[in-house]
Amino acid sequence: MLDITDPPEHPAVQTAYCLTVYNEPGRAILASLASLANAISYQQQRDPTPQEAFVTIIADGSEKISASAMQLFTAMGLLKSRQQILNSGTAYTNSSFDHRILSELARHAYSSSNTDVAPNDHWHDIYQQSLQRDHKSACEGDATQTEFRPSLSITLFIKDVNKGKPDSHAWFFGHFCNLIHPKHCFQLDAGTAPHQDALHVMHIMLEANPTLGALASRVQTLRPRNHYNLLLTWQYTDFFVQKILDWPAEVRSGYLTVIPGQFCAFRWDAITYGEANSEQHPTSALSQYFRGLGPLSPMEATMFLAEDRILGFEIISRRNSQYTIGYAIKAEATTDPCYRLSELMGQRRRWINSSFACNLHTIRNAGAYFRNCRARATRRHETIAAIPWLAITGLIQWFMPTQMCILYISLAARATPADALYSPLVLTFILTVAAQVIGFSRSQFSKLTMSRIAAFTGILQIMLFITCIIRFSIEQQTAAIALLPLSWIVFIYTSATIAPTTTSARPSKSLLYYPFLTPFFMLALTTYAICNCNDLSWGTKGLTQTTGSPSKSMTTGGTRQERLFRTRTISFWLACNIGAVGLFMYPTSPLKQAIGVTSYLLIWIYTVFKGVSGLAMAIETRTASL
After folding, report:
1. Cα 540 to Cα 347: distance, rounded to the nearest angstrom
2. pLDDT tier at 384 (50, 70, 90 boundaries)?
3. Which residues pair with 212 in a beta bridge?
4. In whole angstroms, what is the distance from residue 12 CA to residue 16 CA?
């Protein structure tokens, strides 16, 4: 299955698409497939080069597929297609699929005039939002109103046993793509709907720049109907800020670390490119990525929770690789958010731990990369230049409790800083952090209990913050601290106004309180992530156990090696933060001023660099679209 050394036996197709399915309802899968078919039709109609699209739907475990998903596959006629028995499942292929079947199903299921659509049906909203395009694309005409029929082949592969998303990618890249040898490969998660012009935008970028080995899209959660739902509104705005400021900052630093698995593109030659020109595929980025299917140490297993980051790093770190990772800010897609706090905590635990582990791996291997890489000097220096930015973001993430404690001490200061050290408000804040650490570390507690602890302590911390501002803050300190979130708001609003994105992808009122809520959200989410760094499960869609190993669940705390890994990580994290806070609070500490100034400078550098990078990319994108 994983052999990618054989030459292709069939004529190459232009593009291969992978839709990964687990237990999503049929309406979620239909939203993804219908929007993908619309995007393929839109792209093929505007590309003068004859193309063929090869879509592979990979269901991760026959026992996990929802009944509504099977009804959808039956309605599409896939289960009556040509059948092939493989060693881990069954494949059904329709080599000439009529996309009008999906259009008709979507028209019936998602039509605004359909009385069967529930008022809170977010899949209906996700699909409708995917039909939006930027103004320039909309002026070109609506491709869905024509009789154009794209060249489309669909294969449904149902795995016998649930083995995880990396195994599904192994089947897609190692088997199906190797049969057809595509030029570009796209990944899409069920429940994510690419906008109508997204594929067209990404194809243009890939064709214009042959050194792009991978391309990230701009994925955004569904716009919440109620801005007073803080959970959904914060996620929506956080996704927006990531794509409008965070990712441009990484691009400017020289290395975009993430390629969103929800919707992204790879160049086939880039992921199958060997270490040297004389070598073949066994040392390619793809073969290194497949290491995640074998036995791993806890640190490596944590890294492979971010499979997109692993593959992205392997693409640029090949010895003679000239490939880079790009960001298509105009290629938009809509995905579903987490509707429960416990699910959000599980999702962000996986994201935070895996990103931190991958960034640490990149920093540790920067020297070896610079010595061994044979890419052009400018390419190497661009990648190495990203190391300081990764270090800054890592330090801010690791010392989040310290920075929040310094913030409270600064706000509670009266005449002298010494008066604030033993303020009941500051001590209460420290107790809330201690409660989070203790509560999140208790493997006996359920996800629901941990989410309640996060909600209660977070609300208490916000109340303490407001009390500090009202009662104890000095005017100059309040102005200096308020300048940061206000600068953030200005950068976000300005970038959002300039960037050529759809109206539905622009937050409005939520931006006013997002900068003030984010520190408390991130403190709780980061603390939960570190306290559960031994949890190697996916964290969402009911996946609270490590795939394929029921014994490695959170009820037992994982294997002995994983528990030891968590103990060492928590101990070192606590030692770093307690030591930094202790040095800052100790009146005669020689490092007191240095810690305070360093913390403030890191936050300012973080904010300003992201803001300037976001503005620069927004201006460049707007200029290019004129």
Report:
1. 6
2. confident
3. 324
4. 10
| Integer Cα distance of 441 and 544 in angstroms | 16
Alpha helices in 472-591 (DSSP H): 475-498, 510-531, 560-585
- pLDDT tens digits for 397-408? 999 999 998 888
What's the rounded Cα separation, in Å, for the pair 227 and 258? 28
Backbone angles phi, psi at 468, to 5 degrees: -60, -45
Both tokens of 440, joined, read: 């999140």
52: tokens are: 């063929």
Q: Which of 42, 76, 41, 67 is nearest to 149 (CA)?
A: 41
Residue range 587-616, pLDDT digits in tens = 777 888 888 888 888 888 888 898 888 888
CA–CA separation, 373 and 376 (whole Å):
9
Q: Which of 170, 171, 167, 164 is nearest to 287 (CA)?
A: 170
- Which single residue is written with the structure tokens 């109609």? 45
Distances (CA, A) of 105 to 31, 72, 152: 10, 9, 17
How far apart CA 275 and CA 282 sit, in angstroms, is 9
CB 584 within 8 A of CB 596: yes
Which helix (DSSP H) or strand (DSSP E) does residue 600 occupy?
Answer: helix 592-625
Q: What is the distance between the alpha carbons of residues 404 and 413, in angstroms, rounded to a whole number? A: 14
Query: Which SS3 state, helix, strand or coil, does residue 363 take?
Result: helix
What is the number of alpha carbons within 13 Å of residue 314 lying toward its C-beta?
25
Tokens coding 603: 């936050």
Using the 8-state DSSP alphabet, how is residue 226 labeled?
-
HEC sequence for 74-104: HHCCHHHCEEEEECCEEEEEECCCCCHHHHH
Spatial distance between the Cα atoms of 313 and 289, rounded to a whole number of angstroms: 10
- Single out the residue of 106, 83, 93 nearest to residue 37, CA to CA: 106
Distance between CA atoms of 130 and 123, rounded to whole angstroms?
Answer: 11
Question: Are 400 and 526 spatial neighbours (Cβ–Cβ below 8 Å)?
Answer: yes
Model confidence pLDDT, tens digit, residues 82-99: 888 888 889 998 888 888
Nearest to 216 by CA among 253, 187, 181, 182: 187
**Interatomic CA distance for residues 201 and 8, integer angstroms:** 28
592 by Cβ neighbours in 10 Å (0-12 / 13-18 / 19+) ranks as middle
- Phi, psi (deg, nearest 5) at residue 355: -65, -40
Rg (CA), the chain: 25
Which tokens belong to 464?
A: 């303490």
Query: Which of helix, strand or coil describes residue 187?
Result: strand
Contacts with 507 (C-beta within 8 Å, 6 or more apart), sequence order = 233, 236, 237, 240, 496, 514
Q: Do the Cβ atoms of 527 and 433 come closer than 8 Å?
A: yes
pTM score, two decimals? 0.87
The position carrying tokens 């409790």 is 401
- Between CA 572 and CA 590 the distance in angstroms is 23
C-alpha dihedral over 538, 541, 546, 548, to 10 degrees? -130
User: What is the rounded CA–CA span in Å between residue 174 and residue 335?
Assistant: 27
